[in-house]
Amino acid sequence: MSRVRPEAARTMEQVRHAVDSIDAELVGLLAERMRFMDAAARIKPRREDVRDEARKAAVIAHVRQLAQDLGIDPGVIGSIWNQLVEASIAHELEAWDRLRNPSAAQCESAPGASNPWRE
Questions:
Q1: How confident is the model at residue 54 (pLDDT cuts 50, 70, 90)?
Q2: Which of 4, 55, 111, 119 is the 20 to 30 A CA-CA neighbour of 18?
Q3: Angstrom distance (rounded) from CA 13 to CA 11
Q4: Rounded Cα–Cα distance for residues 84 and 92 (Å)
Q5: What gap in Å lies between CA 96 and CA 109, rounded to an integer?
Q6: Cα–Cα distance between 104 and 98 in angstroms, integer?
Q7: Backbone angle region of 52, left / alpha / beta, with phi > 0 → left and psi within -120 to 50 → alpha
């Protein structure tokens, strides 16, 4: 079943299929985004370079504007992106540590280790 446009949806099956399809695309894009966080960890020379509050603010402002332009609530998108950026920073910090000190990173990622962005 191909994905219908929202205005053409006539059944909940069509809506659910479309949402599942979009979710699969989003997860794929998020996985690619995280691979870029791995690249950033590889490129940044200092651990303290990982957190960049000015860049975080610019990213969130950008997506809020995109949301506004698309007619969706920029507050909701800003909130989602705040969580996404924080998760990305946590991922990048782990990658930075793993690249520069693999044995220490293994200890931190052992069972019971704490990462607030993971369930």
A1: very high
A2: 119
A3: 5
A4: 12
A5: 13
A6: 7
A7: beta
The position carrying tokens 């909701």 is: 76
Other beta carbons within 10 angstroms of residue 3's beta carbon come to 15
> If 0-12 CB within 10 Å is exposed, 13-18 middle and 19+ buried, where does residue 78 land?
middle
Domains of the chain and CATH, by start: 6-108 (1.20.59.10)
Tokens of 2: 């191909």
Residue pLDDT, tens place only, 57-108:
999 999 999 999 999 999 999 999 999 999 999 999 999 999 998 776 555 5
* Euclidean distance between CA atoms 2 and 101, whole angstroms: 47
Burial class (CB in 10 A: 0-12, 13-18, 19+), 96: buried
